[in-house]
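In response to reviewer comment 3 from the previous cycle, which asked for concrete evidence that the modeling workflow produces usable outputs, we include below a single protein chain processed end to end. The sequence was submitted unchanged, and the resulting structure tokens are shown without manual editing.
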Amino acid sequence: MECVFCRIVRGEEESYTVYKGNGVQVILDKYPVSKGHLLVLSEEHYEGVQEAPPEVLARVWVVASALARIYRVHLGAPGVNIVTNSGATAGQVIFHFHVHVIPRWSQVRGFWSGRHELDRREAEEVVGMLKPHITLVEEYLISLGFVEP
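The workflow returned the following structure tokens.
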């Protein structure tokens, strides 16, 4: 079976995309643990963090960091988790390198507790709240020389 994230990157599978470009795509998690749970995908397929080359790792983590700043500084989230899972025993379900950016609006009771299916209303609300700030992603990539100004 082919990778669902590869199909999303190619536009063959539906997703709510927040950002796409420069080797990464940011989508809303289909089963978020909190409102605004994002996935930062490498546009190229690598099974996990252990296979991705350093430049790909850097781009994905820089984008995740920019998104964490958006949530903490611009949208007032009191906390953010940034995490990747590598291997089934670590909880990896989709074997395509990606990083979770999870804003925490209240105290965590269990890391993956609160998981629910994303609906259109919630997706549109999250996309709308991120849209005015998403240029920060490009600013981070430019500042590190990943993208020409």
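The radius of gyration is 15 Å. We consider this sufficient to address the reviewer's concern, and the full set will be provided in the supplementary archive.
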